[in-house]
Each structure stands twice: as structure tokens, then as C-alpha cells.
Amino acid sequence: MSDPIGIGVIGCGIIAATAHLPAWQRLRHRARIVAVADVREEVARQTAREFGAESWVTDYRYLLDRPDIHVIDVCTPEFLHAEQVVAALAAGKHVVCEKPMAATLSEADSMIAAAERAGVRFMVGHTRRFTPRYVALKKHVDEGAVGQVRLVREIERRPRAMWSVRDRETWKPDGQRPWGVDPRYSRGIALGSSIHELDLFQWFMADRPSRVYARTRITRPGGQLPDHIVFSVRFQNGGLAYSDQSANQPSDYPFYHEMEIYGTEGLLRANDPESVTFAIHRGGGLRASGTFVYVVVRPGWLRQPDASLSGLC
Ligand SMILES: NC(=O)c1ccc[n+]([C@@H]2O[C@H](COP(=O)([O-])OP(=O)(O)OC[C@H]3O[C@@H](n4cnc5c(N)ncnc54)[C@H](O)[C@@H]3O)[C@@H](O)[C@H]2O)c1
Question: To 5 degrees, how large is the angle CA 175–CA 179–CA 180?
Fold first, then answer.
């Protein structure tokens, strides 16, 4: 067997520590976490210790000079993605980058151009394409369960953002506010969360959008970034998709997804079951259902709900 590929991770915050680094560790026979980088020195040091990286640095550019690092995994906030990804690609590294790809379209274009110039692999982490629940829905769609997809409808409710997860605190660039609620560093729900649904819509519809219409609102008292969005997408094949999302529910409100995929032959409906009955939520801790019930309805037959799907995002 060939030597494991060398991994360098930029940004050691919540998503790195809860998803990327544990995943690289599980692949230890094929991948080796060589070094991590974070502007917060203590976070970089602690992360290297916790995940067995050989070294840590506060300036990510040192990772790009190391010949034993083959893949750079970018886990910083999106306003940093373009600079870090383009630099890593220019150094000849393969790159995995967290969603959303970039803060602007021109940044995204510059990243694609850099990947093409370098002739290496570049992947944006649209994680829902790997979540068992959505993989199962996609499989039914691809097998023709509903015929040709004409309409996708999605509702998502999230509890207010958690600014610490386990022993990790989200980054506060000015020492006061998390970057995710600061308009200098984030665009709010439209980019941070809706990118997941846009990606799912394209995946299920197997087509490209021709038109998007969106309205956002700030519902959080004192908030400066949109936390509620409704948007619709018209696809080139005439299909339509729409979504209604809120990220400002009380902290005990479960992550809630509801999805319907209508096709020429039937429809597929899926939802997290816990929120469909009468309930009042007033805060008190994160809850997640962990199951996703779905049903495929076609003239003449009914599939019973399958509650075996798991995984949230
Ligand atoms: N796929 C998902 O479901 C999912 C979930 C959460 C977050 N994310 C994405 O992951 C990214 C990071 O989010 P997070 O919640 O982990 O944020 P976070 O604040 O917890 O982590 C970001 C880390 O980057 C570090 N950092 C900042 N500037 C840096 C620099 N110049 N060089 C190196 N490190 C730097 C910070 O110190 C911090 O440790 C965002 O793009 C976010 O949208 C994706």
C-alpha cells in the first residue's frame, strides 16, 4: 500500500474539530494529519495535541511550503477562503474547502481559475451530498421513484447559533462578537445556510438554475445580519424549487428539515418527525431528532416511513 497522503488543516475552530479532523483521523491508514494552522496560538497548539498533528503554526503559509503536505483543508470563515485556497492551489496542493465556497462570485471564479491553472483537485464541502438521509432521497429520485422532478419544497428551522461546541469557542476577530454575526465577516443566512439547500435543489433537480428570487429579514433583536430567508429557484428545465429558512429559533428547538420532491409520477416527502405535533419551545439546550422519516407516494402504492436515516447536516 502507498504512503498515507499528508494533510494540512487551516483553521482549527468548531467545524475543524467536530468534523474534519475526526474524519481525517478515521482515515489514518490513508491520510496523516501533518500540521494545523490557526491565528489563535493556543487553539492551534491544543488542536495539534488533540488530533496528533506533528506541528502547528499561526501563519498558514508555512503549510504551503511543506513538501510532505499534499492536501490543504480550509476550515476558516468564508471571507478568508479565496485568499487561502488560491494560495494553496498556487503552491500545487490539492484543496478541500468548507462551504460556502467564497464570499463573492468573483472570488469563486478566481478559485476555479486557480484550480484549473494548477491542474490539481479542488473540492468544496457540500456535505449534504454525503449525509445518509439526503443520499437516500437522491437514490429514490435517481431510480425514478417520482418520475421527472418538477418541484422541490424545503423548510428548515435552526436553533440560534451555538458559539461554543464542546471545548471550542467560535472565533471573535474583534474580541467581542463572533464572526458569524458581524457584517464585516459574514453575509448571514443567505450564504451560510442557504447554500446547503441551493446545492440540494441542484442535485435533486439535476439541472442548473436560470433565475433566483430571495427576500431576507433580520428577526433577532439587535441582529445585523439576516437570519430568515425565503427564496425560489427557477431551473433551466422549467423546474421550480423554494425554501423557507429561519436560524433564530430558541436554543432547544430541534434542527428541523422538511422536504417534498414532486415529480411527474409521484412525490417524496421527508421530515424530521419531532416538530410536527403541537409544541412550545422556550430555550434550554440543543435538541436534535436524529431521524428523518420519509415516504414515497405514487398512484396505487405507499411506502411506509423509513426511520433509519440519520445525520443532521
Ligand atoms: N458544513 C457544515 O455544515 C458547516 C457547519 C459549520 C461551519 N461550516 C463552515 O466552516 C467554516 C468555519 O466555521 P466554524 O464554525 O468552524 O468557525 P470557527 O470560528 O469555530 O473557526 C474558524 C477558525 O479559523 C481560525 N482563523 C481565523 N483566521 C485565520 C487565518 N487567517 N488563518 C488560520 N486560521 C484562522 C479561527 O481562529 C478559528 O479557530 C465556515 O466557512 C462555515 O460556514 C460548515
Answer: 145
The answer to whether residues 102 and 108 touch, using CB atoms and an 8 Å cutoff, is: yes
pTM for the complete prediction? 0.89
pLDDT at 313 over 60: no
DSSP 19: I
Mutate to test the pocket of ligand 1, among 20, 63, 75, 196 (most ligand atoms within 8 A of CB): 75
Specify the 3-state DSSP secondary structure of 269. Answer: strand
* Cell numbers representing residue 192 in the block: 451560510
User: Does residue 37's CB lie within 6 angstroms of at least one atom of ligand 1?
Assistant: yes
Which of 14, 40, 123, 163 is the best mutation target for the ligand 1 pocket, counting ligand atoms within 8 Å of the beta carbon and taking the most?
14
Digit-coded pLDDT (tens) for 265-289: 888 888 876 554 555 555 566 666 5
